[in-house]
Amino acid sequence: MQKTKYVTEQAVCQTTLHVESTILELDENGLTIMQRQKRFACQNSLEIRYLHVLWAEATKEQLTIHYAAERHKTLNATRKVFQLLDQGTSPRIQAWVQLLLDRAYGDSKARKNLKIYLNPFSGKGSAVKLYYRYAEPLFKAARCQIDLHETSHSGHASQLVREDRNIDACDAIVCCSGDGLPYEVINGIALRDDAGHILRNVPVVQLPGGSGNAMCVNMFKTTSFSHAALYTIKGIRQPIDLMSVTQGDKRYISFLSQSVGLLAECDLDTENMRFLGGKRFAVGFLQRLFSPPVYGCELAVYNSTSQPDPYADHPGCQTNEQSRGLPHLQFGSVNDILPDSWKREHHPTLGIFFAGQFPFVDAISKVFPDARPDDGLVDIIMVDSGIGAWKLVQLFKRVPEGNHLAMREVHHRKVAAYRVTPVRTRGAFSIDGERSSFQPFQVEVHPQLGMTLVTPVGAEEHRLGHN
């Protein structure tokens, strides 16, 4: 706790609070605390950005300001306490506190109700330690209401969200894990009768506790655990597209990507190397560099930029009970006959098929640089297996900067729906980084079916940061 200081009510005005030898000033950038030295004319100054102000309150005896202090690129919950000589509950002091909070939170809701799912097995297995060290102190300082659940097995989070009767009352579902837990949570919600209502209204966010952490990187522009926690507290609601993936008689909801071939193998076949974190993908790539797999397939795409409105045939149905479920499949499932409006292609020597709706698929791989999470389209990248080792290395060296699309060996397009029919009977196929059965599948985009939080104005990028 900081040294106590004393404030008198008579010095309180609209944006300035005088505390004997200290002045608390609210300006356009944040809170400035200036303390004059008694024996010298100089003054010490502490500037706290509004983004970092977590909470403030004035009781009869004291004024307390909670904020996130940054040191070595890590945020820690800190507070300053000022003893009050006069009534701290007076209207003028309370008005100053409220003005500080209004500027600190802006368009974001204060004191969020957070439903937190913590996966102790994700990534290197450090998610629990990271949460309690870096996230929970910030959540508590911001007066967030926390409902914490530690998952014990695969599918546990899916079961919890499916059975939670009060899930629509929370302000965000926080997945402390890799990308597998958001996928599990979203697909658990998809099994509810009110799936559409929950997906559109309850934000799903990620604290980076795994290997990929793509949701966090794309939404919060960081891999820092403490910064992701702050952005959860201060985040702004943002609708995003989701995708339906149909296989056989099953339907999955994808928020990130679908992958077939080399990249899918580098991910799925290195699960036994999770102790390496994100480096396991590089190991998988090097193992296949000189003998890349061949994944021939039949591809069909619907590339109209004017995707049908899911509610076009049901005027006003967004307000009835039926609309609370998942939207109808406008293009049918993988079992339906393809309409003539789809373009069919044959790719007998395909090596890489990757489709996604966010720029980053992990902390450093900007695979889809032109992707937008709310444009109603999915980006597709295809590379032939005969590209050669040298060109393949050049491709992956370009991915972090996102300029690999300029290579003539990389074929890129945006579509509203597509179908892949593999030639092989066995192989690697992943949805959002999770292994799925290797068989024909069809994908269609649902514009703005999902909801998440994004960084507030003024947040800086800490993608390759500390905790």
TrEMBL record:
Keywords (alphabetical) are:
ATP-binding, Kinase, Nucleotide-binding, Transferase
Q: Does the keyword Membrane apply?
A: no
Q: Where is the DAGKc domain?
A: 109-249
**Domain of life, per lineage:** Eukaryota
Q: Name one GO molecular function term.
A: ATP binding
PROSITE patterns per record? DAGK (PS50146)
Q: Write out the GO biological process terms.
A: sphingosine biosynthetic process
User: Cellular component GO terms, alphabetically?
Assistant: cytoplasm; membrane
UniProt-listed SMART domains: DAGKc
In the UniProt record, the signal sequence range is none
Q: Does the keyword Nucleotide-binding apply?
A: yes
Protein name per UniProt: ATP-NAD kinase-like domain-containing protein
Organism equals: Penicillium frequentans
Give the lineage. Answer: Eukaryota, Fungi, Dikarya, Ascomycota, Pezizomycotina
